Q: What sequence folds into this?
């Protein structure tokens, strides 16, 4: 039975008490991406496994240990997306979007799946805000996505998030670098973990990203890729930094960043915070000039980043940043007896068509029970509908914060109610002002 009432490990529900804040966050991210010229793309939650194996590289931790992979009933190998880039590039190629003016700039807000050891800031189903700039080799594009991420942290006034950048060069400069790494790691062969031993010949750079304490200690003294950059990569990196300087974006060069995925070339970067414990990388990205060709397209350069939504929320919480709460319902209409519930339903419906949030009883409950419910829902106004009100077509709405009563007509209900709320918003100008407002309105009544 417990299986039915307990979500799988590493997943989380977003309850109504939290979802409004999340929606606000998502809207802010989408709008900011829009300001930078990125448009939303949505791709399936599952793809052919091959896409991720090719796209991320089969020596990466994600592909080797973390993918949710299964055969569907048609015996095709399917994987839940562990990240957003491969699917985005697949869609870009499938729909011939490379024929549109380049670069194509996309963003997404998406769920990702990785079989990892769940802990704070590390889930099995998590969410990413990501952007991709496809079809541009310019260092300006690298700097532009970095500045978009920085803009988001600044919008929420988050402190202490440092930007670390590095260049891991192109396949050309990596030849010499790999040789140097191989020589270094070969001398430490006895101490490396088993996974790293298997990486040694195929992709020694992956060892730099190993999370085992022994391997990462060994990796600390390994040669750094920055000393092996070719002239073009050197120049690209210089220009990225010049663009960042031009936008006043602080950074430190950290020659140890290599990023977890194989497809990166040249620029790699991370935004790191110390306020959320061990999982401090809030955003990671870089350039991936080899990926589009790897996935069957023409050789087109590109760059992008992924930002962990859960980690962003942890940061907002850790630094006590307020996000808006859900808006309060405006009016609760309480029928004093079930026979008035039809008129109550007519009235809330009228308000709802005017875009006002209104509630009424759905359970033939006593007036007392209804008022208790309205209070719990934190409604701004209440109105009791009884025999008198039905007879006279007039009712009093009560401001639940001030206790003030205002009489309104059931015949011009939504209009009158709006006047009451406007009045209150204007700072409670007194009961007379309702009439004044009606006069301004052309004395319609
Ligand atoms: P890490 O080193 O923390 O495992 P990564 O290099 O695997 O990160 P990316 O693949 O670059 O991460 O994903 C981009 C961002 O997505 C990360 O910077 C992080 O904010 C977030 N992220 C990655 N994996 C998880 C996860 N399992 N749970 C929550 N957020 C995650
Ligand atoms: Mg990881």
A:
């Amino acid at each position: 039975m417990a299986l039915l009432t307990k979500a799988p490990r590493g997943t989380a529900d977003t309850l109504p008490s939290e979802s409004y804040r999340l929606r606000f966050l998502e809207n802010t991210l989408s709008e900011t991406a829009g300001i930078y010229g990125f448009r939303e793309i949505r791709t399936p939650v599952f793809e052919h496994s091959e896409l991720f194996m090719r796209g991320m590289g089969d020596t990466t931790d994600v592909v080797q240990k973390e993918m949710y992979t299964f055969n569907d009933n048609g015996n095709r190998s399917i994987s839940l997306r562990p990240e957003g880039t491969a699917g985005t590039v697949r869609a870009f190629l499938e729909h011939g979007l490379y024929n549109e003016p380049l670069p194509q700039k996309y963003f997404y807000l998406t769920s990702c799946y990785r079989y990892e050891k769940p802990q704070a800031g590390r889930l099995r189903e998590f969410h990413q805000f990501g952007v991709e700039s496809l079809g541009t080799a310019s260092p300006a594009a690298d700097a532009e996505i970095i500045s978009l991420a920085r803009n988001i942290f600044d919008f929420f006034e988050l402190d202490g998030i440092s930007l670390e950048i590095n260049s891991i060069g192109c396949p050309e400069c990596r030849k010499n670098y790999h040789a140097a790494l191989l020589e270094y790691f070969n001398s430490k062969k006895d101490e490396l973990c088993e996974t790293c031993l298997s990486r040694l010949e195929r992709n020694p750079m992956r060892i730099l990203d190993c999370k085992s304490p022994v391997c990462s200690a060994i990796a600390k003294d390994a040669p750094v890729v920055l000393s092996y950059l070719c002239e073009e990569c050197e120049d690209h990196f210089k220009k990225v930094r010049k663009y960042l300087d031009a936008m006043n974006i602080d950074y430190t060069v950290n020659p140890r960043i290599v990023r977890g995925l194989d497809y990166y070339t040249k620029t790699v970067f991370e935004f790191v915070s110390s306020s959320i414990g061990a999982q401090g990388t809030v955003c990671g990205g870089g350039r991936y000039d080899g990926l589009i060709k790897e996935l069957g397209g023409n050789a087109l350069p590109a760059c992008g980043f992924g930002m962990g939504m859960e980690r962003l929320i942890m940061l907002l919480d850790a630094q006590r940043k307020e996000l808006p709460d859900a808006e309060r319902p405006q009016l609760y209409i309480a029928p004093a007896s079930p026979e008035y519930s039809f008129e109550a339903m007519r009235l809330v419906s009228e308000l709802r068509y005017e875009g006002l949030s209104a509630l009424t009883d759905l359970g033939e409950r006593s007036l007392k029970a209804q008022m208790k419910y309205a209070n719990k829902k934190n409604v701004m106004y209440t109105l009791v509908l009884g025999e008198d009100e039905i007879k006279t077509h007039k009712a009093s709405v009560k401001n639940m914060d001030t206790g003030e009563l205002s009489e309104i007509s059931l015949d011009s209900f939504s209009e009158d109610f709006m006047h009451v709320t406007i009045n209150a918003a204007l700072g409670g100008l007194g009961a007379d002002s309702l009439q004044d407002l009606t006069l301004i309105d052309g004395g319609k009544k």
The two ends are 62 Å apart (CA to CA).
